[in-house]
């Protein structure tokens, strides 16, 4: 990579663009020593983002602010912090001074202030205060219950419920998902490892093979991107003959249930229909596949090293694991694979790129070209990137 000389043109650009520059240490700008100035394209789907994050301290701080915004129902602010964090994740080296960020997109005044604080003193007072805040801690604990969203958690906090103990004591009405979430709280908040994901995969493959011979099971989500742990395990299931996958989910679920693998499940049926003249609705809806949100009862095998094994009661015979299953017709498989591999921000950026730069509409089902008023077919992720005019980015580099 070319090392640039210290370039301050961005500084004057920032002034013209009205970006806050008071956060800069003017003194440093006058220094003439060589410092690499980073630059990276503005959409996350134009960048290669591996799991090697050289700026974890900065991105952790920004991600916490993003999380807090999301938990407070401020999605716009959340996305802004996610974009800022993602831009830093793509840099090849640790940032040591603010002046290196000249060509890095998506850094607003708030993000720059946080970055400055962390670079100068190792921490951001705002982020540290947030970490300690009772409200933030309560939001984390309560939304950490499977089935509890931001609104419910906010309502409970308004009623003075800040902890699991207070929740159990006050006994609010819980739905079926929330009861399962509370019952398996510790397990579901313990990261799932790759070996456990593989064990779940073996179960799902056995189920699919038994109820629909020839069905294909693909690990998606974070594990497909190479992550070592996840909050759940995600699978996409299809069959090479179009139409054979219809009605698969109920059969799969009843097989899993009959074998004792399910602690909880909720299935949504497929509601996606391609309109002849174009997408009937904005295609960002994630819920139009046959999809099952479940909690698996996964037998703990010796050697898999479940962190919950041991402790007072000795090794436990099983743990609860969140598992998401999606069934796709093979004609939509490439779109589903691309749409469910993530990361969430990478997906969001792909859709934004498609809409803003290509006048297309991308979903996990299809790609519609508004200029040509037609759907663009694809049988691989590579073809979809090509339709979008993007360089192909493999899953391991979609960790934005
Ligand atoms: N997804 C998305 N937008 C959402 C939710 C999900 O694009 N709002 C896609 C991207 C990832 C995939 O679905 C699976 O979702 P998660 O399991 O939540 O994400 P993950 O990357 O697998 O994260 P984790 O490793 O924590 O499970
Ligand atoms: Mg996942």
Low-confidence stretches: 1-12, 20-24, 282-287
User: Percent of residues in beta strands?
Assistant: 5-15%
The number of helical runs is 17
* Spatial shape: globular
Largest sheet: 5 strands, mixed
The Rg value, from CA coordinates, equals 23 Å
What is the count of β-strands?
Answer: 10
The largest sheet has its strands arranged as: 2-4-7-6-5
| Succession of helices and strands | HHHHHHHHHHHEHEHEEHEEEHHEEEH
What small-molecule ligands were found? 2',3'-dideoxycytidine 5'-triphosphate, magnesium ion
Mean pLDDT: 89
Instruction: Please report the distance between the alpha carbons of the first and last residues.
Output: 21 Å
Portion of residues within helices? 40-55%
Task: Provide a concise account of the structure shown.
The chain contains 17 helices and 10 strands. With 400 residues, it is of the alpha+beta class. A hairpin with a 4-residue loop joins strand 9 (367-369) and strand 10.
How does this model look, in words?
By secondary structure, the chain is of the alpha+beta class. The protein has helices spanning 9-16, 26-30, 56-71, 75-89, 109-121, 125-132, 134-143, 150-158, 164-170, 176-183, 185-188, 194-211, 221-224, 248-258, 333-341, 344-358, 381-387, and strands at 192-193, 216-220, 229-230, 233-238, 262-268, 290-299, 318-327, 360-362, 367-369, 374-375. Strands 2-4-7-6-5 form a five-stranded mixed β-sheet, with helices on both faces. Strands 8-9-10 form a three-stranded antiparallel β-sheet. A hairpin with a 4-residue loop joins β9 and β10 (374-375). The structure holds 2',3'-dideoxycytidine 5'-triphosphate and magnesium ion (MG). Magnesium ion binds at residues 221-222, 230, 232, 234. GO terms for molecular function: DNA binding; DNA-directed DNA polymerase activity; metal ion binding. This is DNA-directed DNA/RNA polymerase mu. Keywords: Magnesium, Metal-binding, Nucleotidyltransferase, Nucleus, Transferase.
């Amino acid at each position: 990579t070319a090392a640039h000389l210290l370039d301050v043109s961005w500084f004057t650009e920032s002034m013209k663009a009205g970006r806050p520059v008071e956060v800069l240490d003017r003194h440093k700008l006058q220094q003439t020593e060589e410092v690499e100035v980073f630059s990276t394209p503005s959409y996350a789907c134009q960048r290669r983002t591996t799991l090697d994050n050289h700026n974890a301290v900065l991105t952790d701080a920004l991600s916490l602010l993003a999380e807090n915004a999301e938990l407070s129902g401020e999605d716009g602010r959340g996305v802004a912090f996610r974009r800022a964090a993602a831009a830093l994740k793509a840099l090849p080296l640790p940032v040591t001074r603010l002046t290196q960020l000249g060509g890095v997109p998506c850094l607003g005044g708030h993000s720059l202030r946080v970055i400055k604080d962390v670079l100068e003193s190792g921490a951001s007072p705002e982020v540290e205060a947030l970490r300690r805040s009772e409200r933030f801690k309560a939001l984390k604990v309560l939304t950490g219950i499977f089935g509890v969203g931001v609104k419910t958690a906010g309502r409970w906090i308004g009623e003075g419920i800040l902890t699991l103990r207070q929740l159990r004591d006050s006994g609010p009405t819980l739905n079926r998902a929330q009861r399962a979430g509370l019952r398996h709280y510790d397990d579901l908040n313990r990261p799932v490892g790759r070996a456990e994901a593989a064990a779940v995969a073996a179960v799902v493959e056995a189920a699919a093979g038994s109820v629909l011979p020839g069905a294909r099971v693909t690990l998606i989500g974070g594990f497909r991107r190479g992550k070592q742990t996840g909050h759940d395990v995600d699978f996409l299931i299809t069959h090479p003959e179009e139409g054979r996958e219809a009605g698969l989910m109920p059969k799969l679920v009843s097989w899993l249930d009959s074998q004792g693998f399910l602690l909880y499940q909720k299935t949504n049926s497929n509601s996606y229909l391609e309109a002849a003249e174009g997408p009937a609705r904005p295609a960002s809806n994630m819920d139009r596949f046959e999809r099952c949100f479940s909690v698996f009862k996964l037998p703990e095998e010796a050697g898999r090293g479940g962190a919950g094994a041991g402790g007072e009661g000795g090794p436990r015979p099983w743990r609860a694991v969140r598992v998401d299953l999606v069934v796709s017709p093979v004609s939509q498989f490439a779109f589903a694979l691309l749409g469910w591999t993530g990361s969430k921000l990478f997906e969001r950026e792909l859709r934004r790129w498609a809409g803003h730069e290509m006048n297309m509409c991308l979903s996990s089902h299809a790609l519609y070209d508004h200029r040509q008023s037609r759907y663009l077919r694809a049988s691989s992720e590579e073809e979809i990137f090509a339709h979008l005019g993007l360089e192909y980015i493999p899953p391991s580099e979609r960790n934005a």
